[in-house]
Design goal:
The chain is α+β, with helices and mostly antiparallel strands. It is 51% helix and 14% strand. The strands form three sheets. Strands 2-3-7-6 form a four-stranded antiparallel sheet, with no helix packed on it. The chain has a three-stranded mixed sheet with strand order 1-4-5. A two-stranded antiparallel ribbon has the order 8-9. α4 runs antiparallel to α9, α8 runs antiparallel to α9 and α8 runs parallel beside α10.
């Protein structure tokens, strides 16, 4: 669903130029410093990247799902680290408010999220709770017109930069499953909330995750998303359906970059007096990669178009996320193999991307969780 093809194509061209002229030339700088420079963040704000999916009435671009995934593919031709900086505003950090927030909550937070004035973050994972919401231990006890939050969250994307968190906490302390979980909007400067140091990760340098600790954090009852206890996990699942599809799109963009890096190297690298691209085993790896990238792109677009018609895409989003996350890993491995020793060197783009894309099989639900979601749906049907 492309609402205004002319406007959208202009924006997509702008993003593509930004990727090639600004982001790709500075990938090494970001890796070396573990920071995205302030001038790049400012350009992201100027282009409107922080508000891609926030409704137009709140200052965003109000992208449809198809428009969003196409933009993610274009943006993630550069290191996916750059997309991660805006990803929580366009995705999990803001979508809970967009989908289930009250008008007052939307008016207070969405305009500032759309401009990038503030960064949102989504706090679900805990030291002992990831995919199993039943073991979530962060609590929210009602006291008058406030809730008191206690607990800790782990591996929270953009936590060091965030000004506001969507926090999943247990309001029904007797429950042992997801039905007792509620969603809250928590401001960064609320007393008792603290953020730990950056996590040191295998890849994705420049994209920061950290622990978030809640020590008797007093949150107004008005910040309960949807105004009803026990709806938090349903909100999270609505957010994750879209997030998983978007991560699949991110994987496609990264895979297209990896394929181009491998193809260009194969055409330039000489062995036995000719480019290695003329060797059939190299051609086979390139052909397999192209086929898988095409399949992934097709899956993402088909699922996005379904969602834009109002169809529930929990199954399709999990299928796309599973396939594309695994696919980009295979494409990255072939790209390193085609580069040979050069692909193992840190000066190589494919070495960095090889480490960066490994994350996609883990977050927004591991590949194994996607398999369980898929199996559950097809058995039910």
């Amino acid at each position: 669903m492309i609402r205004d093809p002319e406007f959208f194509n202009i924006l997509l061209d702008t993003v593509s130029r930004f990727v090639r002229e600004t982001l790709i030339p500075r990938e090494t700088e970001v890796t070396d410093t573990d920071e995205i420079p302030a001038d790049i963040v400012a350009q992201m704000r100027q282009i409107g990247l922080f508000g891609l999916t926030i409704p137009e009435e709140y200052g965003g671009l109000g992208f449809t799902t198809e428009e969003e995934v196409l933009c993610s593919m274009a943006l993630c031709y550069a290191s996916p680290v750059f997309r991660s900086r805006i990803g929580t505003n366009t995705g999990i950090g803001a979508q809970g408010i967009v989908i289930d927030g009250f008008p007052e909550q939307k008016k207070k937070y969405l305009p500032r999220l759309a401009t990038g004035e503030i960064t949102g973050s989504f706090a679900l994972t805990e030291p002992e709770s990831g995919s199993d919401a039943g073991s979530l231990r962060t609590t929210a006890k009602k006291e008058g017109d406030h809730y008191i939050l206690n607990g800790s969250k782990r591996y929270i994307t953009n936590a060091p930069e965030a000004s506001v968190f969507t926090v999943m906490a247990r309001t029904d302390l007797k429950s042992k499953d997801a039905k007792g979980v509620s969603a809250f909007i928590v401001d960064r400067d609320t007393p008792g909330l603290s953020v730990g140091p950056y996590d040191k990760k295998m890849g994705q340098r420049g994209s920061h995750t950290a622990d978030v600790i809640f020590d008797n954090v007093k949150v107004p009852a008005a910040n309960l998303i949807g105004g009803q206890e026990g709806m938090g996990f349903k909100t999270a699942m609505k957010v994750l359906d879209k997030a998983r599809l978007n991560i699949a799109a991110v994987c496609v963009g990264a895979a297209e970059r990896l394929l181009d890096e491998a193809l260009n190297y194969a055409k330039e690298r000489q062995q036995f007096g000719k480019p290695i691209a003329e060797f059939q085993l190299i051609q086979a790896m390139l052909a397999d990669s192209k086929s898988e990238v095409y399949a992934g792109r097709s899956m993402v677009l088909e699922a996005a178009r379904k969602k834009d018609t109002g169809v529930n895409i929990t199954l399709e989003a999990s299928c796309a996320k599973l396939f594309c996350a695994e696919m980009v890993g295979r494409v990255a491995d072939r790209a390193v193999q085609i580069h040979g020793g050069a692909g193992y060197m840190q000066a190589s783009a494919v070495e960095r991307l090889y480490r960066d894309v490994r994350l996609f099989r883990l977050f927004e639900g591991t590949s194994q969780i996607q398999q369980l979601v898929i199996a559950k749906h097809i058995l039910k049907s």
